Amino acid sequence: MVSAMAFYSGTRGASTTPFLFTDISMPPPPTAAAMLHRHPKYSKAINFLSASGSLTSLGFSSSDGRKMSSVRCFSALTHELKTTLDKVVTSQKIVLFMKGTKEFPQCGFSNTVVQILKSLNVQFETIDILENDTLRQGLKEYSSWPTFPQLYIEGEFFGGCDITVEAYKSGELQEELEKANCS
């Protein structure tokens, strides 16, 4: 068992006040490596993935400048995870990080992107981000995009569901996919 610290920054009136919750005992989550190791296409690329995160300390101050409390947070995007994600998104022409799988999407937005890609008859790989919280949080930092699904075309982040739908309607997605499949 590991002990985890959690904090929440809530709003009271016009000011933001940090709230610190107590330690929570929980089993350690599976590592991003363990999740991706189960994916046969990526197992070789991630043999070196570390389960540790980089540690950052955050301090909160009162309005008069006194230090109130501090909490240490783990950055989900370690150097090893970034390197692995670089390899994963470039290993296939089209990679979709989503909730669930293309055979069994676990959210409507993920299902929408899967249906668009299937309707265009393109081959694409999916990674289920629900299997690992470190992977899910690390991807948010990696792409600078807070939501899922996340579509990558030729190693570049294309967008989430809304962007993919708009690009599909305008024909831009079809052009991008055609370029990717011709290269």
The fraction of residues in strands falls at 25-35%
Counted beta strands: 10
Q: Tell the overall outline.
A: globular
Portion of residues in helices?
25-40%
InterPro entries: Glutaredoxin, GRX_PICOT-like, Monothiol_GRX-rel, Thioredoxin-like_sf
Organism: Dorcoceras hygrometricum
Domain Glutaredoxin: 94-157
Keywords: 2Fe-2S, Iron, Iron-sulfur, Metal-binding, Redox-active center
Q: What can you see in these coordinates?
A:
The protein starts with a strand and ends with a helix. Helices cover 34% and strands 28% of the residues. It contains six helices and ten strands, in the order ββββαββαβαβαββαα. Helix 3 (108-119) runs parallel beside helix 5 (161-170). The chain has helices at 32-37, 79-91, 108-119, 133-143, 161-170, 172-182; strands at 2-4, 7-12, 15-20, 24-26, 54-61, 67-75, 94-98, 125-128, 150-153, 156-159. The chain has one domain: 3-Layer(aba) Sandwich (Glutaredoxin). With 183 residues, it is of the alpha+beta class. The strands form four sheets. A four-stranded mixed sheet has the order 8-7-9-10, sandwiched between helices. The longest helix is centred in the middle third of the chain and has 13 residues, at 79-91. GO terms for molecular function: 2 iron, 2 sulfur cluster binding; metal ion binding. Keywords: 2Fe-2S, Iron, Iron-sulfur, Metal-binding, Redox-active center. It holds the Pfam family Glutaredoxin.
Which properties best describe this structure?
183 residues, alpha+beta, 4-stranded mixed β-sheet, two-stranded antiparallel sheet, 10 strands, globular, disordered N terminus
